[in-house]
């Protein structure tokens, strides 16, 4: 039997597809998966088993009918006879991390007993010594009867087991790897394991070996490291939640009565510390002009959120007190030198004058805003760029430029999390944004903002940086 059809793709994407076209060969990926020597199990986002290769069946002594379509913890519950079993808890935590972050998770060495076909095993504690099914001591396997052993029930594990509730002691080295869909969300998880039981048992059977103490210490330290990592992840999650709550409280709501169609979006990085440094603001000035700004602080967590709040407030005050965007960013740059963690922050400030139909702007180390003209072309506002805040040791006047517009256009300001990807030049992401903006040029700001996020891959998936987006209909 081959891969379950819910999992098997017709053709791979990326390098595999390019290689096929270059060589003209037709590759049977279903056969490749089936022949992989390492045991592999494929799970859906609901942790239901959708595919399994032969090596996994051999390692677990299962058939496909035992596994396909079953929840992984129904198929492989904890050994009810082992009160210290942590296999399902540790595996569940790892799989949830993969679903949350979209990143591979390597687990420490795990003791995870599995149910096996009817095989004589040692009775549970308290059974008479002359029980008919006691271990003969020849094979060295450590097995235990679970609740319901020998009855054909599910043994309390949620599985109607073919083994009558018997478990065999096993040690595994697991790695859980996500398979991402086009939108960046986790579509499947490849659960790859290596059975290291023979290695562990081999060490146990050689008490005179000088490496025994080292092996035992290594295993103990692996478990301690796993527990420490769990505590660190929990602490990170708490700090991240606090920082996000603080940032959301400081980011302004849109002021009613702007007489403009405006949409704002903020998307935090998923499962990353690199959050809470992005900000935006759209406000009406005393003379009726509209000030719009976005910025990005270098940093993460609570510290970045605090710096972000200070810079946003300072620029909001400066644009109301000085003559234009360049002077406001000059004042912000001077202020940034006195704020710990604010150096190298970036920002762009634009002022929209509806009576003059102009956009006056200045950028401090920030990606340029994009203007979708009413005529249909997309223009980057890149004629007034300068280094990030506080980057120069001496005060230098910042540049400022003016761009005319006609009613019906759209102005887009954003942070680099929208366009920057680790494996490509930032200009590629900027071009992708311009293409998306042109493709959806007929949309109003609200649906346009959502369409841009989808096209740039920052919805429902994984990104390395948080993203702020402001879309203004002119």
TrEMBL record:
SUPFAM superfamilies: PP2C-like, PYP-like sensor domain (PAS domain)
InterPro entries to which the protein is assigned, alphabetical: Bact_Sigma-Reg, PAS, PAS-like_dom_sf, PAS_4, PPM-type-like_dom_sf, PPM-type_phosphatase-like_dom
Region Disordered: start-end pairs: 102-165
UniProt key word Hydrolase: yes
Chain intervals with Gly residues compositional bias: 147-158
Database matches in Gene3D superfamilies: PAS domain, PPM-type phosphatase domain
Keyword line: Hydrolase
Residues in PPM-type phosphatase domain copies: 263-474
Regions of compositional bias (Acidic residues) in chain numbering: 129-144
PANTHER family on file: STAGE II SPORULATION PROTEIN E (PTHR43156:SF2), STAGE II SPORULATION PROTEIN E-RELATED (PTHR43156)
Entry protein name: PPM-type phosphatase domain-containing protein
Organism of this sequence: Streptomyces cuspidosporus
Organism lineage string: Bacteria, Bacillati, Actinomycetota, Actinomycetes, Kitasatosporales
């Amino acid at each position: 039997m081959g891969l379950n059809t819910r999992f098997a793709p017709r053709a791979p994407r990326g390098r595999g597809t390019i290689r096929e076209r270059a060589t003209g060969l037709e590759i049977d990926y279903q056969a490749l998966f089936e022949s992989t020597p390492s045991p592999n199990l494929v799970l859906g986002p609901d942790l239901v088993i959708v595919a399994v290769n032969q090596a996994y069946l051999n390692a677990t002594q299962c058939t496909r009918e035992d596994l396909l379509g079953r929840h992984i913890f129904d198929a492989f519950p904890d050994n009810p006879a082992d009160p210290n079993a942590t296999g399902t808890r540790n595996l569940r935590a790892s799989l949830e991390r993969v679903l949350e972050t979209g990143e591979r998770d390597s687990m420490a060495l795990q003791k995870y007993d599995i149910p096996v076909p009817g095989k004589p095993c040692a009775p549970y504690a308290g059974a008479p010594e002359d029980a008919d099914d006691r271990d003969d001591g020849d094979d060295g396997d450590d097995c235990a009867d679970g609740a319901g052993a020998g009855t054909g029930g599910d043994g309390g594990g949620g599985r109607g087991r073919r083994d009558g509730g018997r478990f065999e002691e096993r040690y595994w080295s697991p790695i859980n790897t996500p398979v991402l869909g086009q939108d960046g969300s986790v579509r499947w998880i490849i659960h790859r394991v290596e059975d290291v039981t023979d290695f562990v048992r081999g060490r146990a059977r050689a008490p005179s070996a000088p490496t025994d103490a080292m092996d035992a210490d290594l295993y103990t330290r692996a478990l301690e490291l796993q527990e420490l990592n769990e505590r660190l992840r929990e602490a990170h999650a708490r700090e991240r939640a606090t920082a996000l709550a603080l940032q959301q409280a400081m980011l302004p709501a849109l002021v009613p009565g702007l007489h403009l169609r405006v949409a704002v979006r903020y998307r935090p990085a998923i499962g990353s510390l690199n959050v809470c440094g992005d900000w935006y603001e759209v406000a009406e000035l005393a003379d009726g002009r509209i000030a719009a700004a976005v910025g990005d602080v270098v940093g993460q967590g609570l510290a970045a959120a605090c710096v972000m709040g200070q810079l946003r407030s300072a620029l909001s005050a400066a644009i109301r007190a000085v003559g234009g965007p360049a002077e406001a960013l000059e004042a912000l740059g001077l202020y940034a030198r006195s704020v710990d963690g604010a150096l190298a922050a970036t920002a762009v400030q634009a002022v929209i004058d509806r009576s003059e139909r102009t956009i006056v702007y200045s950028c401090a180390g920030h990606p340029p805003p994009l203007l979708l003209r009413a005529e249909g072309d997309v223009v980057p506002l890149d004629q007034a760029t300068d280094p990030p805040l506080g980057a120069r040791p001496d005060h230098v006047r910042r540049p400022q430029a003016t761009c005319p517009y006609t009613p019906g256009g759209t102005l887009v300001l954003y942070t680099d999390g929208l366009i920057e990807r680790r494996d490509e030049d930032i200009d590629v992401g900027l071009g992708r944004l311009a293409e998306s903006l042109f493709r959806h040029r007929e949309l109003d700001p609200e649906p346009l903002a959502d369409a841009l996020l989808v096209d740039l891959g920052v919805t429902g998936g994984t990104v390395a940086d948080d993203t702020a987006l402001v879309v203004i209909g002119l």
